[in-house]
Each structure stands twice: as C-alpha cells, then as structure tokens.
C-alpha cells in the first residue's frame, strides 16, 4: 500500500527558507504555486489546491437553510456567525488566495483485546491528525511569509467552511454523505487551508463522482443523511456524542459502543474500501478506550485521555455520560460493571444518575435502580426504563 507521509523527495530543491528583504513584486503565479505545492507534499499533505477568497455563497445559503429547517440542533461552530464563517477575506487583510491542503487519516483497523468494555473512537481521532495537518500547512505558511506575503493557517476553525473551500480548490467532490471525496483516494482526510496575500492560479472544482451509488445513506445507523449531502445534526451520532445534556433516548441503542465520532457513512463508501491511502503515523493509534476506565479515573486523567477531542466546556461529565450508554449497550452485568453503575447512581450529577438508570435497566440490574429521585431528568428516565438487552 502506498504511504503518503512523508512524500518521497522529488529531487527539486526546496524553496529558500530565509526571510528576504523584498524589493519589487512579490512572488506569485504558476511557477511559484508549483513550488509551494511541492513543499506541501514533502511536508505530508496528500493533495493541495487553490481557491479564491470570494464569499462562500453556497455554503452561506446552505447554513442559513439548515438553521431554518432545524437541522443544526444547537451546533455553534460555523453556524454561529454564518456571515463571518463564509467570508474568508475577513481573516487576512488583502488576502488574494486560499491554499487548501488535506492529510490522510486512513489506517488499518484492529480489534481491541485489552479493554474490559471497549469504547470505540472514530478514525479521525485515532491520533491528533489536526495538529499534524496544521504542522504541514505551517511549512508552506512560513515559506509564504519568508517571501513577504501574509499567510495564516486555518483548520477546523469557525472562521472558514473547510469543505466548501476544498471543493472550490479542486481537492474533491461532495459525497452524498456530505464528506469531500478525493479522486482515487476516498474521504478519510482532514482539511485545512492557508489564507494568503499571494496571487496564485485558481484550481478547477471537480465533477461529482458518486454516480448512482447511494450506499452511505442506508448505512447511517440513525438515518441522519436526510437528503444527499445534508446531515440532520439532531440524528448524527457524531454530534450527539458532543452535545451537552441528555443523550437523545431514541438514538442510545444505535450509539453501540462509539465514544467519539462515527465512521459508518464512510466505511460503507466504496471509494474508501477500494482506494483509501494509509498514512504513516507518528505515534501509535488509539482505536478504543476502556469505558470502565472513563467512569473510574479522575477528571484530570479522563480529560488527558480525551485531549484533542471536542468536549463541551472541557467537562469529563459528557464523556462519562457516553461511557454509561456504552455499558448499557455492550457490557456484561459483571460485579465490576454493577459496582461502577451503582456508584454512578449515587453521583451528585443528575446527568450521570439519569444515564446510569438507563444502563442498569438495559443490563437487567433493576435491583440497583432507585424508586424515586429528586431530579426531573432522572425521574423522566425512571418513567421510561428501556427493555432488557436482547443478548442477555
Ligand atoms: C459542524 C461540523 C460537523 C457537524 C455537522 C456536519 C455537517 N455535515 O454539517 C458534526 C458534528 C455532525 C460533524 C461530523 C463529522 N465531521 Co465535521 N465538521 C464540522 C465543521 C466544524 C463545520 C461544517 C460546516 O460548516 N457545515 C456547514 C454545512 C452547510 O456544510 P456541509 O454539510 O458540508 O454542506 C455542503 C454540502 O451539502 C454541499 N452541497 C450543496 N448542495 C449539495 C447537493 C448535493 C447532492 C451534495 C452531495 C452536496 C451539496 O454544499 C454545502 C456547503 O458547502 C467542519 C470544520 C469547518 N470549519 O468547516 C468539520 C468537518 C466538516 N468535519 C469533518 C469530519 C472528519 C467529520 C466526521 C467524519 C467525524 C466523525 N468521524 O465523526 C463526521 C462526518 C459526518 C458527516 N457525514 O458529515 C471534516 C470533513 C473532512 C472531509 N473529508 O470532508 C471537517 C472539514 C473538519 C476538518 N477540518 O477536517 N461535523
Ligand atoms: S457520522 Fe454516523 S450518524 Fe453521522 S451521518 Fe455519518 S453514519 Fe450517520
Ligand atoms: S457511499 Fe456512494 S453515494 Fe455515498 S459518498 Fe460514497 S460514493 Fe458517494
């Protein structure tokens, strides 16, 4: 299998690294772009392209439409200020171009043999790919700055809609699962960009290549792909795991043993099964965590384990809430599991008590469930106890 990180040396000399005193016009154009692209590829980016800094009109329209349709389910991110997140020129004074770069996060899967109750992490978080992506982009950014340009890196930042600039930069097309698919390489890529004052030749967007395929749509465990390219966040497990508050009861069973992110609409995609390009990892991937560990470790330990994840208010409560649902879905009611659930039922946090009630009922541990509780959220759970898990 080919490896994309680092790229083999092309024999071309790297661009000069020293900041120069700039006289006359600054470098730009096709030749300069070719050099920057080579530099980015050497730094581990799989593909690079250039888009304009014009407002992202389609993305803005879509964001407003999704808000109007109630599909954003309290998400903030790029939805908080659509005008700002779709006006890339606001990010860098006199910006002329956006260089978009992607890093593969494809890596072979492996079964977990160590955890008592394995909690599964989605591929994009097996290591901290966002930091590695930004490091690669910064190599290009530094060159631009050395050449007298302004240049700033953005990745997964609320000021730019990454997929839209990636599409415009000809990196890939929008799949029906909403992800950007890179031709002959699939969608297991994180996306970042450099907004710069350099004038560079614009890339051409690519044609849709999903064709008649629709496999990702029924593969979603919660039917969150409500029409091609459109996700209802209120049903998407990836968002529900991040969202604070009660985890929607109707999607708890579908959660299975996911603790962070969901891969199903991508693992079902033939472009990923056939062509995804494995990356060389700088550290060993963590595909799972023990759910019991998340429920028994200290706050500091849990947050260290989840470093790099989006966790609301950096509060381990939300990770533990998710871990409790995993117990209900996949643990056996062993004495150890019973002990952890019993402790959570006595927690001072109503969120933990509420989800522990659900897990206890799923595992048939009715003797642990209290008859009443002084909190409304927990009372609600007591009123709607789930049925015993079918495999128990
Ligand atoms: C909010 C967000 C989420 C939300 C909502 C996702 C969503 N689809 O909107 C949640 C938490 C659910 C989420 C989940 C995931 N995310 Co996310 N997320 C973001 C974030 C922060 C903003 C996205 C955004 O602005 N959406 C706005 C809406 C309007 O955009 P859109 O859904 O892409 O809509 C476009 C298409 O519909 C297209 N379009 C218009 N008409 C039509 C018609 C057709 C037929 C089609 C096909 C398309 C199409 O145009 C729209 C506008 O560009 C970005 C980072 C960033 N700053 O951009 C990462 C980002 C999109 N996420 C990313 C990833 C990796 C994921 C997950 C795979 C993580 C995981 N394993 O759980 C899942 C995938 C879920 C999915 N199928 O989309 C990557 C995507 C990489 C890629 N190859 O596409 C990004 C770019 C982060 C990054 N920098 O790498 N994410
Ligand atoms: S990430 Fe999971 S829940 Fe969200 S749309 Fe994809 S398959 Fe559905
Ligand atoms: S599964 Fe099929 S429809 Fe969905 S993104 Fe992949 S190619 Fe497109």
Helices and strands, with pairings:
Elements: H1 29-42, E1 47-52, H2 57-69, H3 82-85, E2 97-104, E3 118-121, H4 129-146, E4 151-154, H5 162-168, E5 173-174, E6 180-181, E7 189-196, H6 216-219, E8 225-227, E9 230-231, H7 237-240, H8 252-255, E10 258-260, H9 264-267, H10 270-275, E11 288-290, H11 291-296, H12 299-305, H13 316-330, H14 335-345, H15 350-362, H16 376-383
Parallel strand pairs: 3-10
Antiparallel strand pairs: 1-2, 2-7, 3-11, 4-7, 5-6, 8-9
Helix pairs in contact: 1-4, 13-15, 14-15, 15-16
This protein binds cobalamin and iron/sulfur cluster (SF4) (2 copies).
One iron/sulfur cluster (SF4) binds at residues 177, 220-222, 224-225, 231, 236-238, 262, 264-265.
